[in-house]
């Protein structure tokens, strides 16, 4: 077998080998994604960060992990108690339905605002959106993978 | 306005995509070695070949797309681009290797051969992927005008039926000036958009059975009707155009999406029965269907005529063995005649499996599996039903197509002539699949942006006009 035939063989096998190397990289990426998905399930679906709070309750910078149904208002039975003169007792409720967050106004006196717009009934809420209950402002955030 | 200001205005922040870069580097390495293997075999000495610039151009286009993604800074999927880059690269290798006279086109006095044409289309496809993946930030234009899209699709088909040209007994292509295209490639994307839109709106109603039909529960008839009508029109026209592969694909997409939306196995069983019934009728009515099934059952009955193609393909698989004959050493071509007719469109899987062997065949099938995994993951992570169904349907378009044609090549199913996504020669197929991947990438970005319903009167000019027209069409049809 001369050198040229040999190198042709090497090239051929190297090509197939490199194709499989690419697959190894792919498989690693897929596996890593799968693992993060597994650890993601069972974690909080999102969290609310208090961006502005003139009254101090809840304090600014507080981060609250959210359940699938989270109620906000001045009444102590709410998941998040908003101690603000402009908030109603049962002010608003956040729900996670299927794949997205929704905010619903529960007939509050001064209204619930999503990104500065008054929520009429129910409004879909995305991560990064700003919610205002009374004078207290929240931001909805995704719980980062690995956090 | 300077570039920086423009970027700030659309709130773009570059984002590194390390994973994609590593995978692309590995793809390029493999393709360069493959290219050297092919060129050395053809030339008889170690060389990269005279046509190496083709590969450089192709990889340049791929990396340009990567760079565009980095600059755009969207959090899109990082595995899909490397996968289609490898599929396209394998396509380019194969087209370079086949006789260039299989497809020629005169472009401004320059005669382009098979590989050059495929390179051109691959470039356009990459551009399309990038444009859609970066540019599509709202799916409203797909979601709210589903009936319009359905009408466009049916219109396209009818246009082909009236004005189309026949190739191999199938009336598929439409010629506009120098450009020739196969609208049925685009139609499958449109079908998915329509089905996703319709099912997302009506899935709860469809999932509740209210009409009893013997032992089978069916959803309320009025809600099923538009869907069945759409499917029926598409199927009928496709059958009259004798494009069996597309018919099979449409039907599979329809059934699978119906199942995904309603999670009811009875629909799939019912659909399967309908399919068996329909196919047996077709078998007795249409000669070409009968031909296909007969040579599938035993190609050796008529080895020199009807069974010739499939027998040649089987021999090619056999010749390839486990590691293959090596690029350029297979026999897709004997002298001046093709060993397998239509090797550059329908039998690309066979040709590559011959030269890369069983191991190479596994790689190709594995790549489609990765597309399936990514697509279904995007669907599972989607924000709402429409996006989930759309992502699942688009994934199905590519994966089912690959399964149907690879199975046909291997004589697992009767052979139906459709393309192997991203590998087969052909502009229409490449562009349609590029739209699919582009949309999947766009859907994979789960940004905080919410998509607003079209609001009347807020925007003026052309877009508002289009919306008004679309809205009116929607009302008329629904």
Layout of SSEs?
The complex is a heterodimer of chains A (147) and B (478).
Chain A: H1 3-40, E1 47-52, E2 63-65, E3 69-73, E4 80-81, E5 92-97, E6 100-105, E7 112-114, E8 117-118, E9 122-125, E10 130-133, E11 136-141
Parallel strand pairs in A: 3-4
Antiparallel strand pairs in A: 1-2, 1-11, 3-5, 5-6, 6-9, 7-8, 7-10, 10-11
Chain B: H1 3-9, H2 18-43, H3 52-72, H4 80-97, E1 105-107, E2 110-112, H5 114-135, H6 140-143, H7 146-163, E3 165-167, E4 170-176, E5 179-181, H8 183-207, E6 211-213, E7 216-218, H9 221-240, H10 244-262, H11 265-285, H12 287-297, H13 308-320, E8 333-334, E9 337-338, H14 348-380, H15 385-409, H16 427-444, H17 461-477
Antiparallel strand pairs in B: 1-2, 3-4, 4-5, 6-7, 8-9
Quick tags:
heterodimer, A: 147 residues, alpha+beta, 6-stranded antiparallel sheet, 5-stranded mixed sheet, 32% strand, rod-shaped, B: 478 residues, mainly alpha, 3-stranded antiparallel sheet, two-stranded antiparallel ribbon, 67% helix, 6% strand, globular
3D structure, described in words:
The complex is a heterodimer of chains A (147) and B (478). Chain A has 147 residues and is α+β, with helices and mostly antiparallel strands. In chain A, 26% of the residues lie in helices and 32% in strands. Chain A contains one helix and eleven strands; from the N terminus they run αβββββββββββ. Chain A has one helix at residues 3-40, and strands spanning 47-52, 63-65, 69-73, 80-81, 92-97, 100-105, 112-114, 117-118, 122-125, 130-133, 136-141. In chain A, the strands form two sheets. A six-stranded antiparallel sheet of chain A has the order 2-1-11-10-7-8, with no helix packed on it. A five-stranded mixed sheet of chain A has the order 4-3-5-6-9, with no helix packed on it. In chain A, strand 5 and strand 6 (100-105) form a beta hairpin. Chain A is rod-shaped, with a radius of gyration of 26 Å. In chain A, 27% of the residues are buried. The mean pLDDT of chain A is 84. With 478 residues, chain B is mostly helical. Chain B has a domain at 139-451 and 462-477. Helix content of chain B is 67%, strand content 6%. Chain B is built from 17 helices and nine strands. Chain B has helices at residues 3-9, 18-43, 52-72, 80-97, 114-135, 140-143, 146-163, 183-207, 221-240, 244-262, 265-285, 287-297, 308-320, 348-380, 385-409, 427-444, 461-477, and strands at residues 105-107, 110-112, 165-167, 170-176, 179-181, 211-213, 216-218, 333-334, 337-338. A three-stranded antiparallel sheet of chain B has the order 3-4-5, with helices on one face. Chain B has a two-stranded antiparallel sheet with strand order 1-2. Chain B has a two-stranded antiparallel ribbon with strand order 6-7. The two termini of chain B are 45 Å apart. Residues 448-461 of chain B have low confidence and may be disordered. Chains A and B meet through helix 1 of A and helix 2, helix 4 and helix 14 of B.
């Amino acid at each position: 077998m001369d050198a040229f035939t040999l190198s042709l063989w090497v090239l051929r096998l190297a090509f197939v080998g490199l194709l499989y190397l690419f697959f190894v990289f792919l498989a690693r990426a897929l596996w890593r994604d799968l693992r993060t998905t597994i650890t993601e399930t069972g974690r909080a679906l999102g969290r609310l960060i208090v961006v502005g709070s003139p009254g101090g309750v809840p304090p600014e910078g507080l981060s609250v992990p959210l359940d699938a149904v989270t109620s906000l208002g001045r009444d102590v039975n709410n998941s998040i108690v908003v101690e603000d003169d402009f908030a109603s007792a049962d002010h608003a409720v956040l729900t996670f339905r299927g794949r997205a967050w929704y905010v619903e106004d529960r007939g509050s006196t001064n209204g619930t605002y999503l990104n500065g717009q008054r929520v009429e009934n129910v409004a879909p809420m995305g991560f990064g959106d700003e919610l205002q209950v009374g004078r207290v402002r929240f931001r909805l955030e995704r719980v980062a993978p690995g956090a | 306005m300077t570039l920086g200001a423009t970027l700030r205005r659309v709130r773009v922040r570059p984002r590194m995509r390390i994973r994609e870069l590593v995978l692309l580097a590995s793809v390029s390495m493999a393709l360069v070695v493959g290219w050297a293997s092919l060129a050395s075999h053809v030339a008889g000495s170690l060389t990269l070949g005279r046509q190496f610039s083709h590969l450089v151009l192709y990889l340049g286009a791929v990396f340009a797309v990567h760079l565009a993604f980095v600059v755009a800074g969207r959090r899109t999927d990082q595995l899909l681009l490397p996968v289609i880059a490898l599929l396209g690269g394998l396509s380019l290798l194969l087209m370079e290797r086949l006789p260039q006279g299989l497809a020629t086109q005169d472009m401004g006095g320059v005669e382009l051969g098979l590989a050059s044409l495929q390179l051109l289309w691959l470039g356009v496809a990459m551009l399309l992927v990038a444009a859609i993946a970066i540019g599509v930030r709202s799916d409203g234009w797909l979601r709210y005008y589903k009936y319009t899209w359905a009408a466009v699709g049916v219109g396209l088909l009818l246009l082909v039926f009236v004005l189309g040209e026949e190739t191999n007994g199938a009336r598929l292509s439409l010629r506009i000036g120098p450009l020739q295209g196969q609208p049925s490639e685009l139609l499958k994307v449109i079908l998915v958009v329509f089905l996703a839109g319709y099912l997302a709106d009506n899935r709860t109603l469809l999932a509740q059975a209210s009409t009893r039909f013997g032992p089978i529960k069916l959803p309320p008839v009025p809600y099923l009707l538009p869907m069945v009508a759409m499917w029926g029109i598409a199927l009928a026209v496709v059958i009259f155009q004798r494009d069996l592969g597309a018919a099979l694909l449409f039907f599979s997409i329809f059934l699978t999406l119906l199942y995904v939306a309603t999670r009811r196995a009875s629909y799939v069983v019912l659909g399967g029965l309908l399919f068996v019934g329909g196919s047996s009728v077709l078998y007795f009515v249409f000669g070409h269907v009968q031909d296909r099934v007969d040579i599938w059952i035993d190609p050796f009955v008529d080895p020199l005529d009807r069974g010739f193609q499939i027998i040649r393909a089987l021999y090619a698989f056999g010749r390839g063995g486990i590691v293959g004959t090596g690029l350029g050493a297979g026999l897709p071509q004997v002298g001046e005649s093709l060993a397998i007719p239509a090797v550059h469109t329908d039998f690309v899987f066979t040709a590559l499996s011959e030269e890369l062997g069983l191991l190479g065949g596994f790689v190709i099938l594995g790549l489609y599996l990765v597309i399936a995994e990514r697509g279904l993951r995007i669907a599972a992570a989607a924000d709402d039903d429409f996006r989930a169904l759309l992502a699942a349907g688009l994934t199905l378009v590519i994966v089912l197509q690959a399964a149907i044609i690879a199975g046909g090549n291997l004589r697992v199913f009767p052979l139906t002539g459709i393309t192997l996504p991203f590998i087969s020669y052909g502009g229409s197929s490449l562009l349609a699949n590029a739209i699919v991947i582009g949309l999947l990438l766009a859907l994979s970005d789960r940004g905080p942006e919410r998509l607003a319903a079209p609001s009347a009167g807020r925007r003026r000019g052309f877009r508002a006009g289009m919306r008004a027209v679309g809205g009116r069409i929607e009302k008329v049809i629904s």
